[in-house]
Design goal:
Length: 509
Amino acid sequence: MERNGVLERDGVPERNGVSDKPGGNAAEPVLDAKVSDEKNLSGDDLRGEELKGEELNGGNSGNERILFGTDGVRDVANRGGMTPEMALRLGRAFVLFLTERGIPRPKIVVGRDTRRSGAMLEGALSAGMTSAGAEIFLTGVIPTPGVSFVVRQIDADGGAMISASHNPAEYNGIKFLDREGFKLSDKSEIAIEEYLGDNLTDDWRPTGASVGEVHFLHDMANQYAQHLAAHVKGEDLVTSVVFDCAHGAACGVMTNLIGRLEIPWALIGAKPDGLNINEGVGVMHIEHLSRYVVESASKVGFAYDGDADRVLMADSAGRTIDGDIMIWLLARWLMKKGLLGSGAAVTVMSNMALEEHFSRAGIRLFRCPVGDRYVLEAMQRHGARLGGEQSGHIIAEPYTHTGDGLCTALMMLSACRDLNEDIDTLVDRFGRYPQRLTNLAVAADRAVDMRLVNSLTEDARKRMAGKGRIFIRPSGTEPLLRILVEAKDPDLVDETSRSLTMLLKNHCS
């Protein structure tokens, strides 16, 4: 719901419009100290190690990403930061980044989702990369985790995905992967931005046999489906399942996967036309899936976003099962299989109820900033094999190297079977704390000063101490200030959220 530039959502912090997606003993969560400038913590009680001083305000040495956001470079296609000219320069910069790190003729996998602008940007990105001497392997339409799979499958030196994820069809974006199929770190993206402004980027012009080549890998989406199917034992899986493909990159892979498993699962949102990706379907419109599940009397449903790197669920009553609940179940499943490692990494947006469940199960929880790349870094830092976000990005490193909505759905079905879990009881048993997420629109000519925001909201945080928490951050992909309030008392949540919104509205407008 939008009121005077304020987007609000009760309960699960689902997204509205164009948005981005939210040590000690076993019972004690850990909050990572590494926070990027665009993910400033507000200093609230996060039930973990408290960040102070420089760490609280970014802890960065002065180098900041300008072009790259939370999930690569993203903008309206053919405008601003996502023109063919920019795609070409990004391609050249990425190749130069790899070349100066000892890879003179890098092999790079390039995939895209179903947007009409995808082919345009694919051509420009490939031209930039080949003009810098790279070997390009085009997969065509494939999910982001599919690109990660192909990078490892053909032993490539990196990957690039052309997608704007959950954003509307007019948007597009480019994100890069390393040779292991992991998303690049902040440090690597900063280095690529520096190459964009370096004369060497334009001067590096191989000729003759040194010019790169373009190769076409037409069957990789099918091989990715085969890879997914190999991890699933089809026996006794729920058959009454619906998958909402968001008219995106999951469509072809899911069709192939269902054929391989020979299970009569239903597909909706699976008729992409280049302009309907995420339109009224997928994770951004979970009500579409919920309604279909109820009307078709299905047992469960899964909804993807445009590039299928995240997933949300709906039970038979149409209630949303978000990333927190999935992580709660998958952690117990992986622990039983001996594959959990030291615990699970989640972001500061995850519900406090998850900490309580993990505490009772003896599972360590590690908090980190918002963004699946930070989840991955926390997993690697602490030796955790599972991590994810409330928004549905789930990384289970025994099976994936990046958020993989398709793999997560299959793991959830397998976990429910192996743990004898009733999907319809998960929402009630999880018992989430009431939350309210408010998205304040930030005027184009305003920059959010998080130090000032922290100062303005200090009294509210003190009143909330011991009762719940407040978390405030700028969006990494659009001009929004996100205000999350969480507590056991729903009246306290509503009152605090309203007062903070009124307090900060003038600062943003």
